[in-house]
Request: fold
Amino acid sequence: MAAGKTVSWLLASILIAVAGPALAATPDDVRCGAVKPGAEFEFQGRTLLETPDIEEPELRLINTLITEQCFAQSAELMDRFVQAHPENYHLLFVKARLYWITRSQADANVIVTTILRNHPDFSSMKILLASMDVDDQNFPEATKLLDEVAKVHPEDLWLFMDRLRIEAAVAATADTVKTLKAVMADTHFPRSARLQAMRTAQYETNNVSTEQRDDMFASGMDSGSSRDCELAGKASELIELNRDPAGGVALIEKYLHKSGACMATPTVRVLLAEGYLLEAVQIAPQPARANEKLVRQAKETLGGDLMPVAQRVPPRPFLTPLIPFLKGSMDVREPDDDGNTLICSAVIYTNPAMVQAQLSEGADPNGRCGHESLVGRLLLQAATNKFPERQLILRSLLERGARVELLESCRDPANGKCSEVFYPILKEFEERRAQTRTAL
Reply:
């Protein structure tokens, strides 16, 4: 495809992507309306500017709107810009960046590689590709791209940031830590760069102590450079990896109303409720007077609905002790974001305690789990471990009236472990029900 036709085709696709009904006004409209394009600034003796080769004011504004998660506003401006400038391939940079944030790196990469094939000197697109390489820890390729851009645009802000990321990952020093903290604290940097410094400090920096990492996290939160997305990650680490619910609760309580909202804000609240309940379990295994305050705080955090906590239990066996505190809050029909009910998730993640709890709450043992029944999903799921737990789930379902399924195919030794693990149980219940039918 010729270069001009490729660009025109990609630009035309933007119109399709952003077309749709007008969006109603939201509380973010005022905030997004005040967004201004990033300007040149000085940092540690160097001049920095984001996307210096993109001079179009509209595109610079769109880029900042994307950084501030003003996606509706950025899409509207893209629509206007592509209609006025249908051949301007610079627009594909902001589209690629938007796709990377809201869709996937793979979707963004299609645009990046296509444009660089036709416009190999497009520095901002090279930097975007280098950032993807850094994410993938492909440092040699990233460095090659960064060195090419440095020859023409040494002031490129993300040239500086990506080199800092590589330095942090390969050979972090005290100066690296100092620079990351300085970026987080400097409001001249766009929010995306300050957030990246925060994430680099937490997840990409090699050779630093836990104390240094915690100090960098606190610096990022206190400087206002981070959002609830970072808070969710740190709180999850404390509560679920370090098994320190009190520490996670204290962290969330300190920063929840100070950090900026993001897509993870609901998760932060769920983690806070989860932390309260884990603290309650440490006091008593059931709701009791001694842990009553913590249980009440958990419910108040989520407006009385603990279902979001319940949906976290199936894939996390260490949360199974929370089940007694969730009784009455576990809707047997409500699907999660993947369309699975709680009992379906419990089957998928081999959580017999949650299966039994859901059956006790009235879940249908013959309910659906994707395209299969619950029993069918259990029998057909490829598995190499947790066979006792899977057997317990099968018994629990059959005892509550689930149909005996796949009996003959399960008996065949060619079908893996089914004949050894599940067939005896299926046969037992098939014989029981045959006797009952005969008696009737």
Observations:
- Residues 227-330 form one domain.
- The longest strand covers residues 41-43.
- The chain is about 65% helix and 0% strand.
- The CA atoms of residues 286 and 324 lie 6 Å apart.
